Amino acid sequence: MLVKWIRCTVTDRRGFERGQRKWAGLPGEPGFRGQGGGWSRGRQGVAHVFAFWESRAFYDSFMARSHDRLAASQNGTFTDARVTLFDHRFDVKTGFEPRFSDADVVRVAHTRVREGRDEHFARMQEKVWNPAMAGSPGMIRGLFGEAPGREFLVLSMWLAAAEHGKYRQERVERLSLRAQTEADVEALTGDVVDLEPAWTV
Question: Taking the model in full, what pTM does it have?
Answer without folding.
Answer: 0.94
